[in-house]
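TA notes, week 10

Several of you asked for a full example with nothing omitted. So below is the full record: structure tokens for the whole chain, then the designed sequence directly under it. When grading your own attempts, check the secondary structure regions first.
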């Protein structure tokens, strides 16, 4: 089981790297280990385009390292606080996705401009704080609330899900929606949004 999870993490990191969401050294992915109080998380500093299962790190929810030869990122603290706060969360994805970062820099949330973007249009923008600090971790968790995604100003994005697939898919949807917004603004300015009443109706369906 544990081996399957490690394979899944490496596959998801490869997928997000190939999609341009994870930069060569930026971004981290974690998932709970069933029937335990532990998680597997990706290491810091290593090139994310060629991670192996051997580079993953097992830690408990207090951050004590239990297995692995490499070091976790300081951003692990953000993952751990999400898991400690949200029992329903099975996986966390944090990436420095370029278009989500562009929107975050301007403090702009995703507007409801496509059906796919609607589910993520509530994702708040968290002001920039130093990674790994108590204040930064708490501000991310507070902004996330019982939601599934946040934009991190001058930094990237964070998504959560029932499992890795769920969290990674959400990260990709967020980045694609952000890309659509950025391209619209570059071409012609503010895009036409889905009318408010229809957006509210659709949100109930796609949420
Ligand atoms: Zn980061």
């Amino acid at each position: 089981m544990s081996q399957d999870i490690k394979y899944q993490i490496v596959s998801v990191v490869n997928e997000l790297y190939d999609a341009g969401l994870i930069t060569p050294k930026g971004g981290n992915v974690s998932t709970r280990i069933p029937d335990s109080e532990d998680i597997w998380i990706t290491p810091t500093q290593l090139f994310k385009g060629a991670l192996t299962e051997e580079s993953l790190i097992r830690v408990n929810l207090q951050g004590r390292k239990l297995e692995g030869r490499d070091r976790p990122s300081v951003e692990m603290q953000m993952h751990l606080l999400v898991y400690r706060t949200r029992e329903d969360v099975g996986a966390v994805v944090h990436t420095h996705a370029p278009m989500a970062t562009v929107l975050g820099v301007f403090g702009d949330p995703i507007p409801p401009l496509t059906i796919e973007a609607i589910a993520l249009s509530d994702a708040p923008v968290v002001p920039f704080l130093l990674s790994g600090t108590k204040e930064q971790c708490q501000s991310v968790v507070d902004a996330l609330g019982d939601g599934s995604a946040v934009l991190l100003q001058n930094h990237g994005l964070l998504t959560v899900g029932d499992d890795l697939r769920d969290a990674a898919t959400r990260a990709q949807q967020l980045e694609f929606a952000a890309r659509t917004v950025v391209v619209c603004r570059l071409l012609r300015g503010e895009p036409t949004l889905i009318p408010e009443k229809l957006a509210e109706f659709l949100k109930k369906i796609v949420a």
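The mean pLDDT is 93. Use that as a sanity check on your answer.
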